[in-house]
Each structure stands twice: as C-alpha cells, then as structure tokens.
Specification:
CATH topology: Porin
Distance between the termini: 76 Å
Helix content: 10-25%
Structural class: mainly beta
Shape: globular
Strand order of the largest sheet: 4-3-2-1-8-7-6-5
Number of helices: 1
Order of helices and strands: HEEEEEEEE
Number of domains: 1
C-alpha cells in the first residue's frame, strides 16, 4: 500500500512539473474552438473574386431567432459560453478580400462575383454571408462555431 501511495505521489509531482503548452497569442476562447488551432486561412479564391463590393461595412443591430430585443445574440437558446454582442464587428473588403476581427482572431475570405463570402478564422468558426440584392450595400449571414450561432448584418459605410 505504501509503494502504491509513493507511486501516486510521484505521478502527481511529475504531471505538475511538466511544462504546459502555452496558447498562441490570438487564439479564440475555449467555447469557440471547433478544430485544432492552426494557421490562419483565407476562404475562397483570389481568382474568383470581384472588387465590386469593396468598402467598409459596419455591423448593425438586428433580431436573432430567439431574442425579442436588438443586438447580436446567440441564435438558439443561449448556450453557456456564447458571448452576446451588441453589433457584429466591422468588415473591410479590399480587392475582393473580406476581413473581420472578432474574438481576438481575424476572419478572412474572398467575395465571389455573385456576392457570397465565407470568412474562415483558421480555428473552426466561420462566417457565411451574402449581399442582399434587394437592399444594396447590405451583407447578411450567419457566424457559426461549435456551440454558438449568430445572425449577422452589415451596412456599407457612406
């Protein structure tokens, strides 16, 4: 019994003294992680893009599917760890490349000539959005991570 106790203490000491891997700077909070963190990725293709949508797009408040109030809310019943936002972060499109910074990472993707953009974080969460043909200068879509879904809307700055 004494030998088992000593072996247990040695195991705990070994684990406690082992250097722990540090999270890289700019990673997402744990609830956003849906894949092993990796290098930043740019969704889409620079060969299949257009500059027709270039500009700055400000996030605007909107209603979610589960909230009667305004703001960027978790789409489903609030999931523990899903952060609630007042508005989506600003999206900037330059030479067809859309970029947005949220949760300490950059989401990026190319806008297709049809007005669709998928922005990838490189960590699992993505944003899929389309320019609304009925409302010029309006980009609507959904941000998705493992447990959190958000309806998002942006309006082109004038």
């Amino acid at each position: 019994m004494k030998a088992l106790f000593c072996a247990g203490i040695a195991l705990v000491a070994m684990v406690a003294c082992t250097p722990q891997e540090q999270s890289p700077q700019g990673t997402l909070s744990q609830h956003w992680l849906g894949a092993t963190p990796g290098a930043a990725r740019i969704a889409g293709s620079p060969e299949n893009t257009t500059t027709a949508f270039d500009g700055t797009y400000n996030g605007i408040s909107g209603r979610s599917h589960s909230s009667s109030g305004t703001g960027l809310k978790s789409r489903d019943i609030p999931t523990p760890g899903c952060q609630q936002f007042d508005v989506p972060p600003t999206v900037t499109i330059t030479n067809g490349l859309a970029e947005m910074q949220a949760m300490d990472v950059i989401f990026a993707g190319y806008v297709t000539p049809q007005g669709h953009v998928m922005m990838d974080s490189g960590y699992g969460p993505t944003v899929n959005a389309d320019f609304d043909p009925r409302t010029p200068g309006t980009l609507r879509g959904q941000a998705v991570s493992v447990n959190c879904r958000y309806n998002v809307t942006w309006q082109k700055a004038t």
